[in-house]
């Protein structure tokens, strides 16, 4: 069907999801399958003096118990880190081993100590209770800024100061000089708090070793099956890649937390080989809270300098990034290349310097969580500029307009070179903010706010504008920045003899609706029905290769790979059509699913051409039969979506409760394939950003205990906490990919949190309150009002 | 999230249920809605060997009026109470309490008897029971006893209920005269239990409050009637000024809970705010 691009087609995958027919890893039951329960340290830091498994081993139905000692004796490596960020002085990043099971020491609450494998899940759990681990608890450190201080407990004995790396970007000298000249300087010190991702499907892994063929299958709830295979084979277990199949079937949410290679994946694979049987491990909810990689957790001090005209001239940032106890797959890249590089924002700032120290603590490893680094950067910039507006007594919108980078389309005008390494592809920033202000009726709202204040009503209006780098990522660029992988994407477009199309994609859908969006593109380009297109993902045996889904990359990078395949099909199809129509290729046009000889009614359909390719009786000489093209696409640049969000809140003075009245999002994600899916992505993202602003945050006590590791204690945003979101878009196409798309998966999360916080600060301005830290819980807000009344 | 191994037993009469309790002692647990018990079992905080299901016992689910009392069978669900016309016409605050619990699924399973027996410090029912001066009817091997709500709640998850006893009924005196009732709840944002829940009944005679009952849940280790507030308003007109003064007395002489949602100081403040909210609403309902 032509003209499918841009249509709000209902998601084809939803039928199985909403009727309970999704097939998740835990739904897989293999013959003879055993079940694993992992024994985890309930101390954040403890020596393991001994493990007594005698009683548990004797229990009926218990098949095996492995401890850290077994893993060490088997010579198994830990899970690797996929990104290297070195010290400023050239010293290599400190990369401590992250063993599948720890033998000597537990380094965070949840660190895996032993695994019990039994005939049922219940038996495994019962037996685990009989395993006696003798711990000697040690002092723990949970705060990143404190962990680098002298005398802080060490997470790894051989890593002084708990420092994994320290890193800088931008011109320090120039920034210092510029800041010294600033007419006004605004300073902000804050914690961008640690979040727990909370995918509703807990992680799950099934290892299945087939001794007959000496082959392994790993089923895992992952966003990234091919990368898991690569990392597990090459770095952990030393198994040749062609011996391993990794399958990630339906995945119930990831938000980043399922990108990484987790110890349990390799552990199940290894155990399955030892026992010759498939073994399943599914996280319990409390395990998810403790062991799914957390997000954010930056301790930052930032200063923004303005000249006498209110133009931002300099930005200086120092961040301590909490990495947790071990380096997760992408951990070093998040606070550096996904954070420092975004500090230009939408503004013409001329001098920027950012300094980041990556720090180990006795906490759950921290890695990418929806937005990854970019929400932290946006929060920093947008809080600073709002605080500056308050201090300089100017309207926060006006201050932003004054500082926006002028429009550039990346074709006629070059991309914008930032002070922090990136080159923006295309941008036109003022219209998104103008539109958002129009939607909220900014002027009228300011009046309402003013009259409300006279009646004791605390109304606040908060603006945030953002830019993000997504469409991750050009391989050569990320390679030069420390990535140990390329970040291209693959797609195979296979036209079946009957003209139906199967597309094998290396990106992985876990809520994004790829089965719909990708099928729309293929149906549109081939002029066939969407039902005639199948999108296949998540299985290393059918999909050639892939780098998975994260960093809002699937459409910009994966979709572009599909486009390459589509072009190859149409190119070959034109040759076949020309032959069959006895015309020159140049005289053909392809539209509405058929090749027509221009100016005639002679035509041949896509289906007939496909059939001819597979039944090549009357066929162009020298042309290969078949219609099946694998393509890899490596993007020329990141893509740079942007947008403006506005939150309107009312604060209850008596209780400190923040009532989010309205939320407006005007985003520019480039061209849009399915507006309904993009809206959905924005809505979900905005909800998560609001979650960070008002509700969420992991709390560790001094001894490293996770205090709120359950839904009784960790506040997730719920539907009734949220207003109906008002969304709109502008369209600034990406100049460097065939669809002109930029990505929409993280935008909502990146823009929303600072808008909400700015709104609350705006509401509290009459009390002289300038800054509060997320989450803005009622008590925090009430205390601030109470202490400033 | 897998409980320990247990046996499941369906009881058909209250007497049969009690027999199991006597036989198995602290290894047995009654199963009502299961909405407090099962989560605790899954976390292995509670490990009964014998689960005695009381849901099928005939005559434990009812709402009726008897001798100026509202009588609720112990296995009556929150939803049945919330939607009862009888309750609404007599003590509407009880419908509010019920409706404030969890979500519809929870209210369709959870029971008032289960909630009272469980005595979670943040549960909603205890405040409603204290404010209405309910009587908890308890049956055990030695027969039946009536325990006034004020003697029932004894501490954190602790009640006057013995191991081998079962709550069979809740009897609530129907207040007479010109009464106003209300339940004001500040939810704990994660669990949506009560951070502070305040239930009140006031009655007005000749323009003055002649009776004030006001009880809190969530504020302290167990629900309690706040006599300081009650006294402060009794004998006064239920207007904003008097209510504000009375509400200021809330939670003064009690040990107040503290957690990451609300420190002692803030919780005490919330108690005052919600006492005022509840009293104002009750006054409006007179
Ligand atoms: C998601 C969720 C949200 C919730 N939100 C709220 C809320 O906002 N406010 C609130 O107050 N509660 C809330 N609850 C708890 C809910 O109200 C429970 O239903 C209630 O606390 C227990 O009632 P039950 O019938 O489920 O009891 P069960 O869980 O079956 O039993 C609880 C305990 O009481 C004992 N018991 C049960 N019946 C009797 C009886 N007749 N005699 C003696 N002992 C008995 C059991 O042996 C057990 O020890 C929530 C629960 C869930 C799961």
UniProtKB/TrEMBL annotation, chain A:
Pfam family, one: MoCoBD_2
Aldehyde oxidase/xanthine dehydrogenase a/b hammerhead domain boundaries: 19-139
InterPro entries (alphabetical): Ald_Oxase/Xan_DH_a/b, Ald_Oxase/Xan_DH_a/b_sf, Ald_Oxase/xanthine_DH-like, AldOxase/xan_DH_MoCoBD1, AldOxase/xan_DH_MoCoBD2, AldOxase/xan_DH_Mopterin-bd_sf
Presence of the UniProt keyword Ion transport in the record: no
Keyword list, A-Z: Molybdenum, Oxidoreductase
Signal peptide: none
Keyword Oxidoreductase: yes
UniProt-recorded name of the protein: Xanthine dehydrogenase family protein molybdopterin-binding subunit
Organism: Agaribacillus aureus
TrEMBL record, chain B:
PROSITE patterns: FAD_PCMH (PS51387)
One matching Pfam family: CO_deh_flav_C
Matching SMART domains: CO_deh_flav_C
Top-level taxon in the UniProt lineage: Bacteria
Keywords: FAD, Flavoprotein, Oxidoreductase
Transmembrane segments annotated in the record for this chain: none
Domain FAD-binding PCMH-type span(s) in chain numbering: 1-177
InterPro entries: CO_DH_flav_C, CO_DH_flav_C_dom_sf, Diverse_Substr_Oxidored, FAD-bd_PCMH, FAD-bd_PCMH-like_sf, FAD-bd_PCMH_sub1, FAD-bd_PCMH_sub2, Mopterin_DH_FAD-bd
Classification via PANTHER family: XANTHINE DEHYDROGENASE SUBUNIT C-RELATED
Protein name, per record: Xanthine dehydrogenase family protein subunit M
Taxonomic lineage from the root: Bacteria, Pseudomonadati, Bacteroidota, Cytophagia, Cytophagales
């Amino acid at each position: 069907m032509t003209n499918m691009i841009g249509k709000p087609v209902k998601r084809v995958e939803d039928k199985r999801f909403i009727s309970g027919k999704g097939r998740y890893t835990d739904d897989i039951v293999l013959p003879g399958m055993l079940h694993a329960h992992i024994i985890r340290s309930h101390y954040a830091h403890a020596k393991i003096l001994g493990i007594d498994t005698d009683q548990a081993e004797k229990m009926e139905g218990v098949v095996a118990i492995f401890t850290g000692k077994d893993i060490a004796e088997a010579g198994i490596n830990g899970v690797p880190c996929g990104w290297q960020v070195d010290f400023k002085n050239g010293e290599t990043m400190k990369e401590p081993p992250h063993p599948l099971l720890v033998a000597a020491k537990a380094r965070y609450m949840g660190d895996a100590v032993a695994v019990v494998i039994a005939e049922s899940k219940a038996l495994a759990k019962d037996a685990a209770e009989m395993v006696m681990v003798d711990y000697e608890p040690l002092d723990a450190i949970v705060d990143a800024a404190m962990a680098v201080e002298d005398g802080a407990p060490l997470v790894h004995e051989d890593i002084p100061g708990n420092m994994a790396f320290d890193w800088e970007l931008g011109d320090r000298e120039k920034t210092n000089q510029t800041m010294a000249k600033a007419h006004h300087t605004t300073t902000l010190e804050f914690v961008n708090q640690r979040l727990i991702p909370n995918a509703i499907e807990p992680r799950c892994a099934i290892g299945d070793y087939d001794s007959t063929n000496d082959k392994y299958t790993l089923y895992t709830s992952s966003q990234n099956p091919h990368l898991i295979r690569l990392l597990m084979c090459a770095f952990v277990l030393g198994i040749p890649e062609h011996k391993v199949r990794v399958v990630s079937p339906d995945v119930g949410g990831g938000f980043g937390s399922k990108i990484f290679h987790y110890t349990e994946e390799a552990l199940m694979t290894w155990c399955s080989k030892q026992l010759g049987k498939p073994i399943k491990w599914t996280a319990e909810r409390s395990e998810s809270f403790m062991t799914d990689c957390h997000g954010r957790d930056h301790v930052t001090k930032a200063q923004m300098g303005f000249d006498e005209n209110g133009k931002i001239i300099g930005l200086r940032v120092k961040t301590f990034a909490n990495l947790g106890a071990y380096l997760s797959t992408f951990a070093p890249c998040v606070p550096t290349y996904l954070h420092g590089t975004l500090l230009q924002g939408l503004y013409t700032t001329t001098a920027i310097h950012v300094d980041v120290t990556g720090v180990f603590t006795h906490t759950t490893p921290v890695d990418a969580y929806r937005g990854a680094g970019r929400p932290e950067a946006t929060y920093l910039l947008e809080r600073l500029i709002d605080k500056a507006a308050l201090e300089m007594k100017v309207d926060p919108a006006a201050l932003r307009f004054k500082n926006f980078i002028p429009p550039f389309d990346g074709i006629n005008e070059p991309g914008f070179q930032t002070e922090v390494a990136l080159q923006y592809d295309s941008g036109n920033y003022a219209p998104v903010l103008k539109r958002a202000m129009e939607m909220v009726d900014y002027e009228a709202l300011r009046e309402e706010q003013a009259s409300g204040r006279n009646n004791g009503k605390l109304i606040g209006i908060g603006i945030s504008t953002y830019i993000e780098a997504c469409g991750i990522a050009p391989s050569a660029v990320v390679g030069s920045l420390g990535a140990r992988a390329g970040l291209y994407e693959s797609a195979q477009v296979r036209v079946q003899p009957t003209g139906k199309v199967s597309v094998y994609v290396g990106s992985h859908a876990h809520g994004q609706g790829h089965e719909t969006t990708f099928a729309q593109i293929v149906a549109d380009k081939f002029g066939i029905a969407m039902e005639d297109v199948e999108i296949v993902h998540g299985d290393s045996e059918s999909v050639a290769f892939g780098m998975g889904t994260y960093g809002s990359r699937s459409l910009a990078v994966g979709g572009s790979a599909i486009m390459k395949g589509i072009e190859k099909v149409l190119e070959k199809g034109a040759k076949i059509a020309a032959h069959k129509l006895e015309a020159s290729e140049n005289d053909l046009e392809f539209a509405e699913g058929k090749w027509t000889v221009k100016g005639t009614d002679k035509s041949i359909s896509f289906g007939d051409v496909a059939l001819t390719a597979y039944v090549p009786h009357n066929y162009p000489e020298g042309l290969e039969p078949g219609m099946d093209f694998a393509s890899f696409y490596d993007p020329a640049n990141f893509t740079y979506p942007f947008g403006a969000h506005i939150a309107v809140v009312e604060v209850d003075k008596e209780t400190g409760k923040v009532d989010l009245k309205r939320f407006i999002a005007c985003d520019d994600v480039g061209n849009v394939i399915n507006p309904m899916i993009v809206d959905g992505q924005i809505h979900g993202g905005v909800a998560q950003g609001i979650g960070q602003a008002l509700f969420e945050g992991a709390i560790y006590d001094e001894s490293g205990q996770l205090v709120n590791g359950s839904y009784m204690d960790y506040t997730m945003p719920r539907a009734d906490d949220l207003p109906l979101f008002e969304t709109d878009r502008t369209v600034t196409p990406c100049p460097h990919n065939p669809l002109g798309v930029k990505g929409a998966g993280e935008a909502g999360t990146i823009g929303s949190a600072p808008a909400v916080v700015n709104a609350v600060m705006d509401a509290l301005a009459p009390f002289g309150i300038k800054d509060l830290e997320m989450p803005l819980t009622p008590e925090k807000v009430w205390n601030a009002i109470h202490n400033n009344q | 999230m897998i409980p320990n191994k247990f046996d499941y037993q369906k009881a058909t009469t209250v007497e049969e249920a009690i027999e199991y309790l006597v036989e198995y002692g602290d290894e047995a647990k009654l199963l009502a809605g299961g909405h407090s018990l099962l989560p605790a079992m899954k976390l292995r905080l509670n490990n009964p060997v014998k689960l005695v299901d009381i849901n099928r016992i005939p005559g434990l689910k009812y709402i009726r009026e008897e001798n100026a009392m509202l009588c609720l069978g112990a296995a009556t669900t929150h939803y049945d109470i919330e939607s009862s016309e009888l309750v609404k016409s007599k003590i509407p605050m009880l419908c509010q309490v019920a409706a404030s619990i969890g979500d519809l699924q929870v209210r369709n399973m959870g029971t008032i008897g289960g909630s009272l027996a469980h005595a979670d410090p943040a549960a909603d029912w205890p405040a409603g029971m204290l404010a209405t001066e309910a009587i908890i009817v308890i049956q055990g091997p030695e027969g039946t006893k009536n325990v006034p709500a004020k003697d029932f709640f004894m501490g954190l998850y602790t009640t006057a209920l013995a191991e081998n006893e079962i709550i069979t009924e809740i009897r609530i005196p129907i207040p007479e005269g010109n009464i106003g009732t209300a339940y004001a709840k500040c939810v704990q944002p994660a669990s949506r239990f009560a951070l502070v829940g305040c239930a009140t009944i006031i009655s007005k005679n000749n323009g003055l409050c002649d009776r004030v009952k006001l009880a809190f849940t969530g504020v302290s280790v167990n629900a309690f009637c706040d006599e300081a507030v009650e006294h402060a308003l009794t004998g006064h007109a239920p207007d904003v000024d008097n209510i504000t003064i009375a509400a200021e007395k809330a939670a003064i002489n009690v040990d107040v809970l503290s957690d990451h949602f609300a420190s002692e100081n803030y919780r005490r403040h919330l108690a005052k705010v919600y006492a005022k909210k509840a009293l104002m609403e009750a006054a409006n309902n007179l």
